[in-house]
Amino acid sequence: MRNLDINSVWSSLLSTLAHRALSPTSRLHWIYLLSALLMALWTYWLSRRQGEQRSLPEYLFPRSVWLHSSAITDYSYAALTMPLWTLLAVPRLLSPTQVSQHIIAATPHWLLPISPTAMPTLAVALLYTTVLIVTGDFELYWVHRLMHRIPALWEYHKVHHSAEVLTPVTFYRTHPVELLIQALAEAVTIGLVTALFSYFFHDALAPATIFGVNILRFAFFVFGANLRHSHIWFSFGSAAEHIFISPAQHQIHHSSDPRHFNRNFGVEFAIWDWLWGTLHCAGRKRPLIFGLGSDENRRLSTVRQLYVNPLRATWWSTYRFVRSTAFTS
Ligand SMILES: [Zn+2]
Ligand SMILES: [Zn+2]
Fold first, then answer.
1. Type and span of the H or E element at 210
2. Is the pLDDT of residue 158 over 70?
3. pLDDT (0 to 100) of residue 52
4. How far does the centroid of ligand 2 lie from the alpha carbon of residue 123, in Å?
5. Cα-to-centroid distance, 187 and ligand 2 (Å)
6. pLDDT category, 2, cuts 50, 70, 90?
7. 114-128, 138-152, 153-167: which range is least confident on average?
C-alpha cells in the first residue's frame, strides 16, 4: 500500500513536470523556443550587415554566456526548484477559481443580477480575455515594483537579479517566497476579475485560447518571451516600447548601471511604466553588465545561497526588530 502511494506520488510528480515542460502553458515549449530562434536569426542577419564576424553557432551559443558559472547555477537551481514547487503544490493552495467562488458565495442574493447581461458569447469571451491579461499584468507591475521598493521583499527578488548572464533558464531563478507572493497576488486578481464577470454574465465564462493558453499570453510568449533572458538584443522600436515591453527593455531592467535602476517593471505591457514614470526604451544596442555588483553576486552564486541567504536576512532583520522593540518598551 505504501509502495503504491509512493509510486502514485512519483507518477503524479513526473506527469506534472512533463506537463509543465512540454505544455504550451510553459514558456519553454518548442513553439516559443522556435519563434525566439527565428527572432535571433533576424538579429544575426542584421548584425552581419553591420560587420558581425562571429559564425552563427558562436553568435547564438557563446560559451561565455551558456557555460558561465552563473548560467550553470541557473540550470541547477531550476532543476531543483521546478520539482519542489510542483511537489509542494503551493500554487494550488489558493487558485483564482477558489477566490472567485468565495466572492460569489459571499455576495448577498439580492445583489446578484436577475438575468445575465445580454451580450454575444464571443464578445464576452474577448472582453474577458483582454481584461484577464491587462489586470494580471497591472498586478505583476505593482508586485514587481514593490519587490524592488520594500527592503524585506528585495532580499528575495535579488535572487533573480543576481544572475550575471541571462539565458531563458534565468526566468526560473526566482526564490520560492517570491513565487508564493506572485501566486497569491495572481489568484486574488484573477479571482476578482472572474467573480465580476460571473456576476454580470453568469457561468459560461471561457477566455479565448490557443492550445489552452490565453490568446494574448500566447502572442507574448511567441514574440520573444524567451529572448528577455538572453544575450540577444531585440528592440521593438521606441513607439511600440511605450505599449509592449521588448526583450531589450527587460535586459535593461537587469542592468547593473545605476541609470537603469528601477526601470521597466512591466512584464507584457509597458503602459504601466509609461504612466508611472519608470519606462526606459531600449534605443541603440549597447553592452550591458548584469547582476548586483561583484560583492553581492558572490554572496548569491550557489544554489544553497540562493535559497538560504534571503531567509537568513529575514530572520536577522526580524530578530533585530523584536529586540529593539523589546528594549524600548
Ligand atoms: Zn526586478
Ligand atoms: Zn528577469
1. strand 209-210
2. yes
3. 83
4. 34
5. 21
6. very low
7. 114-128
Whole-Å CA distances, 311 to 155, 157, 198, 315: 8, 12, 40, 6
Residue 322 has pLDDT above 50, yes or no: yes
Give the residue carrying C-alpha cell 489558493. Answer: 94
> What is the CA(211)–ligand 1 centre distance, in A?
29
In angstroms, what is the span from residue 295 Cα to ligand 1's centroid?
19
Using an 8 Å Cβ cutoff, are 313 and 299 in contact?
no
Backbone torsion region of residue 257, taken as left when φ is above 0, otherwise alpha when ψ lies between -120 and 50, otherwise beta: beta
* Ligand 1 geometric centre to CA of 20 (Å): 24
Ligand nearest to the CA of 156: 1
pLDDT of residue 126: 85
Confidence at residue 328, expressed as pLDDT on a 0 to 100 scale: 67
* Type and span of the H or E element at 25: none
As a dihedral over the C-alpha atoms of residue 172, residue 173, residue 176, residue 179, rounded to 10 degrees, the angle is -50
> 20: Cβ–Cβ under 8 A, 6 or more apart, which residues?
26, 82, 86
- Helix, strand, coil: what percent of the chain each, to 5? 65, 0, 30
H, E, C per residue of 132-171: HHHHHHHHHHHHHHHHHHCHHHHHHHHHHHCCCCCCHHHH
124 CA → ligand 2 middle, Å? 33
The domain segmentation of the chain, as residue ranges, is 27-328
How remote is the CA of residue 274 from the centroid of ligand 1, in Å? 16
Question: How remote is the CA of residue 129 from the centroid of ligand 2, in Å?
Answer: 25
CA nearest neighbour of 47 among 222, 264, 231, 229: 231
At 10, list the grid cell: 512519483
Residue 96 near residue 186, CB atoms below 8 Å: yes
